[in-house]
Amino acid sequence: MKKLWAALLGTATFFGSAAASTAAEPVEIDGKLYRTLSVAEYRDKMKAGWIGQIAGVCWGAPTEFRFCDRIIPDADMPKWTPEMINNAFGQDDLYVEMTFLRSMEEHGLDVSIRQAGIDFANSEYMLWHANVAGRHNLRCGIAPPYSSHPALNKCADDIDYQIEADFSGLISPGLPNNAIRMGEKFGRLMNYGDGVYAGQFVGAMYAEAFFETDVVKIIEKALEAIPAESQYAEMVRDMLAWYRENPNDWKSCWDKINEKYQHNAEYRAWSCSGCDSPFNIDAKINGAYILIGLLYGKGDLDETIKISMQAGQDSDCNPSNAGGVLFATLGFSKLPARFSEKLDETGVFSHTAYNFPALIDVCDSLALQAIKKEGGFVRDVDGVPTYFIPQTKTVPSALASCVAPSEELPSDGAAIRFTEEELKQIKFREYSLEELTAKHFNGFQVSHMGPDMNPGFRAEYRGRQNVLMTHPELREIGAVVSKTVVPTAKSALVLEVSHHLTKDVVGDYLLIVKLNGSSAKELVVSKDSVGADGWLTVEVDLSQYAGKETKIEIVNQPNGWSWEAAYFAKIEIVEK
Predict the structure, then answer these.
(1) All domains in the chain, ordered by first residue
(2) CA separation for the pair 417, 494 (Å, rounded)
(3) What is the pLDDT of residue 435?
(4) In sequence order, which ranges of 210-330 are alpha helices (DSSP H)?
(5) Confidence (pLDDT) at 333
């Protein structure tokens, strides 16, 4: 203890003010280094981080994804008004992270990933992209981390955890490893690889913002929190290099970002919108737009938000992250009143337990838990309650990629699913296409299905109920409905099939039925081949395979790549 008090006496002068505190040297106690932060200053900076998030998303909301693959013209940039702040309560990049806070508030800082998944599955707000895909998987019974596995989530590299990871740094002052763990838990509900690293990086920036005001140093420190070999880390290094090359022309930097992360397919390999779409919700390019604001804003609150916004794409979420980090470096007490004076502190964020004061209180509580978990503590110094936060080596997660996942899905399907007891806790059960196909089509399963035309189940189509609609994965690869059976001498496969038809569009496709890999029937399903009711009955004799294990493959094969959807009202094995 003598060493402790000697260290404190030697540094006691900086505890009197927030500005001096951030400049303090670490304190050595029993051979360990601790950074110090008064409890009041922590709360002040954490509160500012939330205001920065809120201001960024509310200011940018009118522009969100209206400007893709181009800079927002000056004339289309909205102007900040203090009343904008109350547009926050329905914003997804705010309310989602509050679900994660609630999980920890109710179940403790070390809440399991499975419990976190159950809580996220029970959320009732609107979601998009990786979030909605992850929540759908959870509601279908797929337990995390498999809910985000690229084999089951085609949006796993999207921006989602990046936009909602702010909480992880705001409850981790000086604790990047805690933000990393939050990413491995909450980020893996919906994202994988770079999609998770994006959020871990954002969390680590916040963690450092409690002690550092130089944004370059904040970014460099946060870079230690993600695998150096990842494309996301490559993007961060690019941004630092491009800024140093030309620190006064953000539009020149934007051109470099666009050339590499928008128009180079290598950096959009898991883009849910494809490599050629102007729309790009990939975490890397939007992460670059967070950094372009932080770097070229040069510490100016308005310019930081405006530049991140004007870069385009997800132009409310990106300035929200940038604003949150920068505001946290200053603290609430130093913010201009225009960013918070009109905030309705009684307003509750959509489908959460929190208004603004309750949000600040829960972060206070969780931060204390996180500091103690890492070996830190609270002590009075000159009558000022102060956090002593241990300095530890930052240890990033293992390298993973959506393109080549480092982990395979278990061959045992039960291993990726919630238990029956866990499923009982999920209020909003949904069912996967596999489950619905097995239920309504006697155990047949679908594979090689692409996303075009929104395939899946239709409650009704052309007078039939519970219709399965498939669409091919690629021009060369048809969607397949398959099952292995052992026919009898009287067995036959009976199908009722149709094609796509709307007022303006008529589609067709080649239907192929294969038995043990050999074609047994081929025909074009079109307006000319179906009956007056729009349906065609197809029968395939199975008797020659009697007593033998036989794989049936019903292929929806493209024959022109124009409205190639297939509709199935019946897929049955009958006995003649």
Answers:
(1) 40-341 (1.10.4080.10), 433-575 (2.60.120.260)
(2) 33
(3) 78
(4) 215-223, 231-245, 250-257, 283-296, 301-310, 317-330
(5) 98
Give the list of residues 6+ apart from residue 319 with CB closer than 8 angstroms, or none: 56, 57, 59, 60, 293, 304, 305, 306, 308, 309
Cα 298 → chain centroid: 28
Encode burial over 478-514: b for 16+ CB neighbours within 10 A, e otherwise.
bbbbebebebeeebbbebbbbbbbeeeeebbbbbbbb
For residue range 97-107, list pLDDT tens digits in order. Answer: 999 999 999 99
Given a contact cutoff of 8 angstroms between Cβ atoms, the answer to whether 132 and 161 are in contact is: no
User: Which three-class secondary structure state does DSSP give residue 407?
Assistant: coil
Q: How confident is the model at residue 558 (pLDDT cuts 50, 70, 90)?
A: very high
By percentage, how much of the chain surpasses pLDDT 70?
96
For the chain, give the longest Cα–Cα distance.
94
pLDDT digits (tens, 9 = 90+) for 112-132: 999 999 999 999 998 999 999
pLDDT of residue 13: 31
Does the structure show a pLDDT above 50 at 163?
yes
Angle of the 301-310 helix axis to the 39-60 helix axis, nearest 10: 40
Indicate the SS3 state at residue 345: coil
Rg for the chain (alpha carbons), in Å?
Answer: 27
pTM: 0.78
DSSP 282: B
**Nearest alpha carbon to residue 65 among 280, 324, 370:** 280
What is the secondary structure of 541-566 as a DSSP string? E-GGGTTS-EEEEEEEE-SSSSS--E
The residue with tokens 């002590």 is 379
| Average per-residue pLDDT for the chain | 93
Type of residue at 228: A
Q: Could you give the C-alpha distances from 106 to 100, 112, 164, 354, in angstroms and in order?
A: 10, 12, 19, 13
Alpha-carbon distance 255 to 69, whole Å? Answer: 10
Which single residue is written with the structure tokens 């050339």?
Answer: 259
In contact, 387 and 173? CB cutoff 8 Å? yes
| H helices present in 387-510, as ranges | 420-423, 433-440
- Helix count and strand count (H, E) for the chain: 19, 14
